[in-house]
Write a structure and sequence with these properties.
nine-stranded mixed β-sheet, alpha/beta, about 240 residues, single chain, 9 helices, Carbamate kinase
């Protein structure tokens, strides 16, 4: 049996990925599809942590720009990520995957608080850990939370799961001639302003030499391929 290239990973899932083609909310079929892709990787013995966004339920930044206090909007967005984490955990349970949700804000009647040592122990016990509520602070995105958690748990790579199969020179939906990058350095991505993720998260990954894989989570076996070292999506590295 082929050996995986990475032992421990951090998977960043956007909230929008959970809604599929729906206008908002969580699409059960889409969530189940994502969980099945995750289970394939888990069955290879890879330790998996997940950071999930909340954009399918609440767009804190958008409402903040419309006049709501930004900090309040961001806290509401954090609560949305907890709802998504619970939905993902429930879908995993139905697929026979054991997972734990840890939240950066305390809601102990619902989910565990984030404790680094406990999270690492869960990973070592081959349980999937779902991190919710971002960093627990306003003004930081879930991309930044993903980069931070990846470093705290000593992940070997961060996978950003999107609806696009990698990083392009331009939006491939708007420009069919956009160039896809198979490999790109952090510095080149910054210079070309490719917006892989927000600047804080991207800089954290670059400074800590944490590679980023960008894949289409809806493409069958895409997650497995990149973790097995098979060319898939785009890899950002030093």
């Amino acid at each position: 049996m082929p050996t995986a290239k990475y032992k421990r990973i951090l998977l960043k899932l956007s909230g929008e990925a959970l809604m599929g083609k729906d206008a908002f909310g969580v699409n059960p079929e889409i969530v189940t599809k994502i969980v099945k892709e995750i289970k394939i990787v888990k069955d290879l013995g890879i330790e998996i942590a997940v950071v999930i966004g909340g954009g399918n339920i609440f767009r804190g930044v958008a409402l903040g720009a419309a006049g709501m206090d930004r900090a309040t909007a961001d806290y509401m967005g954090m609560l949305a990520t907890v709802m998504n984490a619970l939905a993902l955990q429930d879908a995993m349970k139905h697929e026979g995957v054991v997972s734990r949700v840890q939240s950066a804000i305390n809601i102990e009647q619902v989910v565990e608080p984030y404790i680094r040592g406990k999270a690492i122990k869960y990973l070592e016990d081959k349980r999937i850990v779902i991190f919710a509520a971002g960093t627990g602070n306003p003004f930081f995105t879930t991309d930044t939370a993903a980069a931070l958690r990846a470093m705290e748990i000593n992940a070997e790579i961060m996978i950003k799961a999107t609806k696009v199969d990698g990083i392009y020179s331009e939006d491939p939906v708007k420009n069919k001639q956009a160039k896809k990058y198979k490999n790109i350095t952090f510095d080149d991505a910054i210079q070309k302003n490719l917006k892989v993720m927000d600047a804080t998260a991207f800089t954290l990954c670059r400074d800590q030499k944490l590679p980023i894989g960008v894949i289409d989570i809806f493409k069958e076996n895409a997650l497995k391929n990149v973790l097995m070292g098979i060319e898939e999506g785009t890899l950002v590295n030093i």
